[in-house]
Amino acid sequence: MDAADRDALIASAGRLGLTPVEWGGLMSYESGLNPGRWGGSGGRHVGLIQFGPSEQKAFGVTGRETFQEQLPKAEAFLLSRGYEPGMGLMQAYSTVNAGSPNRLNASDAKNGGMPGTVAEKVQNQFGPHFRKVSAFLGGDAAMTMPTETATAPAASGRFGFSGIEPSASSAPTMTTPAAEKKDDGLDAASILKMLAGEKGLASLAAPAGGGATAAPAPPPMVPIQRRAAPFDRDAYLALLRR
């Protein structure tokens, strides 16, 4: 399958109201996306959605069509059986597998189909086919399933009838970021040591200017002495006469 097949799948899915992964996954489950594959009961079914003998005649399916040539015939089958665009994947597969929408509990196991009802197949068996189609589509449609491991081989994105072609390149690895160093706060001792340099912490207490002497102490405080007034004898006697 090539880029033209990819574009045809996307356009066909849009006309049916399905995502390309859903529509492609459905056809991959039925036929591996091989328009020439025969299977089913007695090996009488053929094509992308395994057209039965009567459908082969009705829609002109021979199994010799290309992928792009057979897509419109698969669309025509769905629409002729009551499927309407936008009904969704479950109803689309009910139409393909059981002949019409709303037959989610039907099973074709007795006619050579896989075990399980329509709903069970979509829910439990479509997953690997979704991944194959996602790898073929690439880009934003790529899907990673939870069960996949980091040691799984990387897909090349090229999709053939036998599945995804493996890539020779190794899968990318992820490195764990280093743990962030804990902030222990301000280290005052280290800062003082850095400021002191080679002279040691004692130099921080020494006065600036090297050998300069300390300033002299101020003189002691002496109370002001008031001069005594001379003795006035006459004033003293006058006080005594009162």
Outline the structure in words.
The chain is mainly alpha-helical. The protein has a domain at 3-151: Lysozyme (Orthogonal Bundle). 38% of the residues lie in helices and 6% in strands. It is built from nine helices and four strands, in the order H-H-E-E-H-H-H-H-H-E-E-H-H. The protein has helices at 3-16, 20-31, 53-59, 67-80, 89-98, 118-124, 127-137, 188-196, 233-241, and strands spanning 38-39, 45-46, 155-160, 163-166. The strands form two sheets. The chain has a two-stranded antiparallel ribbon. Helix 1 packs across helix 2, helix 1 (3-16) runs parallel beside helix 4 and helix 2 crosses helix 7 (127-137). The longest helix is centred in the first third of the chain and has 14 residues, at 3-16. The radius of gyration is 48 Å and the shape is rod-shaped. The N and C termini lie far apart (144 Å). This is Transglycosylase SLT domain-containing protein.
Strand content: 5-15%
Class per helix and strand makeup: mainly alpha
Based on the structure given, which CATH architecture of one domain is correct?
Orthogonal Bundle
Helix segment tally:
9
Shape: rod-shaped
Largest sheet: 2 strands, antiparallel
Low-confidence spans = 142-177
CATH topology of one domain: Lysozyme
Trace the largest sheet across and list its strands.
1-2
Radius of gyration: 48 Å
Give the mean pLDDT.
77
Q: Count the strands?
A: 4
Return the string of H and E elements: HHEEHHHHHEEHH
